[in-house]
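Thread: "does anyone have the structure for this chain?"

Original post by V.I.:
We have the sequence but no experimental structure in hand. Need at least a predicted one for the grant figures.
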Amino acid sequence: MINVNDEAMNTIKKLFFLLLLLNFVPGNVFAAQISVSFDRNPVSLDESFQIIFTANDTPDNDPDFGPLEQDFEILGQSQSSNSSWINGQSSKTIQWTLNVMAKHPGSLIVPVVKFGDDVSQAASILVTQAAANKAVDTDDDLFLEVEATPQSPYVQSQVLYTVRLYRRVEIAQASLNEPELGDAVIEKLGDDSNYNTQINGVNYLVTERKYSIFPQKSGALTIKPLMLTAEVVANTRPNFNGFFNSQMTKTKKISSKSVTLDVKPAPATFTGRHWLSAEQLVLKEEWSGDNQQMKVGEPLTRTLTLLAKGTTVGQLPELNIGKIDDQLKTYPDQPVLREQKKPEGLIAFREEKIAVIPSKAGFYKLPAIEIPWFNSQSQKMEIAKIPETTITALEAIGTQQAPVTPVAPVVAQPQKIEVVPLTQPQQQNTWFWAALFLASGWLATLAYFLIKRTVKKPVAEKSEVEIRLEDSVKSLKKACADNNAVAAKDALLAWGRQKYGAASLGAIAELSDARLRDEILNLNQVLYGKAPDQWQGKKLFQAFVENKAREKIAVTDDDKLEPLYRL
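Reply from O.Q.:
Generated one for you, tokens below.
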């Protein structure tokens, strides 16, 4: 038996050993992580920009920005912090923002900055030569500049459209219209950035705004001029003081130049079925477990991810389209679609999760997934590929039936039965009870048929519901064959009211599987879009039929399950 004092001494020894061990832990294990970023990259030599230091925790000490002064002129700095509490976990970020100008052009390195014992990461930024003197009248206090890169893109490729407002006057308020271009998708990228620059020796404050433009057809497309309406603060002041001594402003309107794009069609060398143009593209797969040791009847989740820079999420194709073995049941979830708007362009993300359940032990092959795409940087076709995947399904433990041991039949020993002859009164009683028994059986049979006849009516009502459901399905099939979006909506609503009691397409979509849900939501979007007459109904009805088939499979599988408790 352990003595209490001995146990206490052992605890003290363990704590002492732990403290001793902590003294040998390197200090950088607990160091704050400090990253470096820029508001723009690249920048021009005559432009100011921001260097942002972000720490995920309070660093050891205040920063020493002295090493930056070798290549950068520090114009000003500010500090901010942010704390949050999410899911029971606290987090904190601290930012130092430096407004700087480069002292010379080139690929400049922002050196490591010390925050006491903590240090930041190094980072690089490209500084270009100052632009040649622009053909700008320096008497202009306010003007707009627009730029499109590239000006000869391929169809559905990204064009970065940059708007810069130069001013050397104070503006009370201003409004700028959005770029307009027919047959194009236009997305604003992030927040505006502000910096200082010089033109012909004159200082200007610049506000820069960026857009991603994706032309949807080839040929010459012209981006209309932008119009700025600004209330410029005048230098004059009224001659009276007091409450009414407000700033005097004058309205000024300025416009930019128009920009014409020469949009090229998809090159003939592109052999993919689905045209996809991007600057970068990554395709990958992940499994929730070991796909070489799957168990029969147990699911594993396969996650397919497609990440593309310089394209919209609407351009990303479906990933899980290959035909697989009938012994593998697959249940795809609704795809996750996201877009991230960065200063350098749009980043599109598509993720598909598929539950895979083998119904029989053996080896199965999932076909290779190939995504042909056009690299707009190298101007060449490339193929992102996930090779053919082989998975192994094993019998689940405990599924084999134990051998049945034969049981010897029990032979009953013959018993001697004594036959007693019946007297006349006993025979009469026996016939009486036999007749009474037969009459009772006849009455029970009659009652059974009467009851059965009365319960036929609910069965008839149920068949009427089934008939109405079948009529709705027939209407939906015809509407989809005719590509009639409005008729398809009416048929779906009639089917959904009878099937689920749902009164809207959104409610029906939520009760359907992933593929049918996507097609219903697409129909809903088309109905409220600009061109419902261009809707194609083939995919919707195919997804509808597959949804019904999956429901039948699920019901059949449930019927095969043994009840948890036998009564």
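V.I.: this helps a lot. The CA atoms of residues 139 and 202 lie 10 Å apart.
O.Q.: and The longest strand covers residues 184-199.
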